[in-house]
Amino acid sequence: MTVVHPISRAWLTTGVTGAQNYDEFADDAEITAIISANPHSALAVEMPHLAPESVGKSFTDSLPDAVARLALERAEGNYVPAEHVVVLYRISAPGEPTAYGLWSTVDTDQISASADEAGLVIRNEEVFIEKVRERVALAGALGTLLSPVLLLQTAKGDELHAALAAATESAGEPAATDVDQSGRTHAIWPVGPGPLQDELTALAGGGELVVADGNHRSLAAQTGRLPRFLAVITTPGSVAIQPYNRLVGELPLPVDELLRRLDAAGATVTELPRPAGIPAKGTVELYLGGRTFAIGLPADPNLPTVENLDHALVERVLLGDVLGLDPGDKRISYIGGDYSAAWLRGEVDAGHAELAVLIAPVTVDDFVKVNLERQKLPRKSTWFTPKARGGLVLSQLD
Q1: pLDDT digits (tens), the chain, 398 positions
Q2: Within 10 A of 158 (CB to CB), how many other CB atoms are there?
Q3: Which of 57, 179, 194, 259 has the fewest CB atoms lying closer than 10 Å?
Q4: How far apart are the C-alpha atoms of 141 and 61, rounded to whole Å?
């Protein structure tokens, strides 16, 4: 019996509602600008307090606005209903391997967040609980899920990849397409009950599923007691891991004191005569005041592997011990791989932040190792690409 199921009551975009997921942005102003340019964007529903006409309201106070916007999008025909479907998903761009996925729902009681918790869905990152509360409140108000949890099929990945490629190849024209900010084309095809749907759900649920993106959304499904959550199940051959960096808006201490504390903590500090870039694994680069420093942060051999990954060392040693900042401090921004090293340096040079922390991407080997050990990665440490697009396939909650 598979843990992957059709979407009982789906709503499919007709082509104007697609959006980056709400957590892909460096600052809130970008979300408001995107909604201004495309009022039909699902971001206006996902982040209602950032829609131009709602700016200034709290998230909670903006929930009625989200409900009204989604109802209007449905009434205007920007979503069309479908029942008991899975949805083929293809992401393509010139010069890139084609990515495939399957929109479906997955049993929430299969989520496992630790080694002593049974389940076929492995959640692997720490989360910010306030973001989880917002997702629970939004789902409760809308009675609908707009963004999927991206899951990697670990056991049947190659078979699922081949089956999805064959199914999309023979499916004809897509039901809808959407082009994202990177120029990738996202295409969807609904598949109703029958042998193909059965084959795809069996393959998609044929082994452990690892949360690649959507740790907050998966925990929100548990917290909100949803029996199933909306997911895109993809394959290892469809994704890559990009850097996930940090910006610190305001330093709590002078640069010289920062360097002194790093040295006292056992870090190696080397000033580099060049602009900061994405470093090799085992070193992080800091950019502040027009200067670049290569930092070797001290590992603790008494801790498990995951606690000595570069992102964990940045969180524990640099941000925690040296700067005295909690991971949820509002001065810290988590910047995904869509933003380049040059963009990060530009934010510092423009005075929008005082420190950029550039970190090597987590390797696929480390990602797999941590998940097999049922350990948790640090917050915001894996930026998988390509991202599943929000607002393409919705799941109405029964």
Answers
A1: 689 999 999 999 999 999 998 878 878 999 999 999 999 999 999 999 999 999 999 999 999 999 999 999 999 999 999 999 999 999 999 999 999 999 999 999 999 987 788 899 998 778 889 999 999 999 999 999 999 999 999 889 999 999 999 999 999 999 999 999 999 999 999 999 999 999 999 999 999 999 999 999 999 999 999 999 999 999 989 998 999 999 999 999 999 999 999 999 999 999 999 999 999 999 999 999 999 999 999 999 999 888 999 999 999 999 999 999 998 899 999 999 889 999 999 999 999 999 999 999 998 778 877 877 788 888 889 888 899 999 999 999 97
A2: 13
A3: 194
A4: 11
Give the CATH number of domain 245-360; options: 3.30.1760, 3.90.930, 3.40.50, 1.10.10.
3.30.1760
- Tell me the domain boundaries of the chain: 4-241+384-396, 245-360
Fold of 4-241+384-396: 3.90.1530
Q: Which residue has the tokens 């090293």?
A: 341
- How far is the C-alpha of 122 from the C-alpha of 218, rounded, in Å? 10
Q: To which residue do tokens 């397409």 refer?
A: 177
The alpha carbon of residue 306 and the mean position of all alpha carbons in its chain are separated, in whole angstroms, by 19
Q: Burial code of 303-317, b = ≥16 C-beta within 10 A, e = fewer? A: eeebbbbbbbbbbbb
User: From the CB of residue 67, how many other CB atoms can be counted at a distance below 10 Å?
Assistant: 17
Would you say 80 and 11 are in contact if contact means Cβ atoms under 8 Å apart?
A: yes
Tokens 């099929």 found at: 153
Residue 209 CB: number of other CB atoms within 10 A?
A: 29
CB 330 within 8 A of CB 250: no
The backbone region for 66, taken as left when phi is positive above 0, alpha when psi lies in -120 to 50, beta otherwise, is alpha
